[in-house]
Amino acid sequence: MKLTKHVSVAAASLALTVAAVNAKPAQAASVVLDNQVGQEYKYKVNFDNSNTSGNQETLIPGSSWTLSGLKGVTDVFADVNYLLAEIFGQETVRLTLKKSVSGTEGTSNPSLNFSILSPFKPNNVNWSLTRVNPNGKQNLFSDEVIGPVEDVPEPVTVGGSLLAVGFAAWMKRKKAELAQEA
Fold first, then answer.
1. Given the DSSP bridges, would you call strands 29-37 and 83-88 parallel, antiparallel or unpaired?
2. Of 81, 85, 91, 165, which one has the greatest count of Cβ atoms within 10 A?
3. What separation, in Å, do the N-terminal and C-terminal C-alpha atoms of the chain show?
4. pTM to 2 decimals?
5. 47: helix, coil or strand?
6. What contacts 24+ positions apart, CB below 8 Å, involve 174-182?
7. At 144, which CATH number?
């Protein structure tokens, strides 16, 4: 009986430890890839874990989102009434909130949607959110999202590679024919 009690306590302790290690901190909002159309990567900002009644989250002016590790960013489209969009060296995009925006957990506000233009292929990039709360305190959250990071091979390169493979196969066949004639 005592052994069963000790094993149960140990199992419960282990489960709580694993849960605590795997737990993520509460985030105010997160950047999510909505879809990609050609060279345009469309993002939305979802309101996440809120500690207020009714799960209502408010982001106030000065809060900002930064996407880093990008490549080839040529333009950013955002609602200019709500977001100030900046590009740094075609590798980093920062959006700063101009007006307060509220939403409930699990929703997104269309005013926070934005798009990035880049000819590069998608892969994981980092994003961070600096949230300014109503008291002026700043909190930093970060994670990963899909964004443009990998070069797209030029069609001439792909065509040249296919031509080389075809030429090599033709030469091998020609060599085999000459060997049979000899």
1. unpaired
2. 85
3. 89
4. 0.64
5. strand
6. none
7. 2.60.40
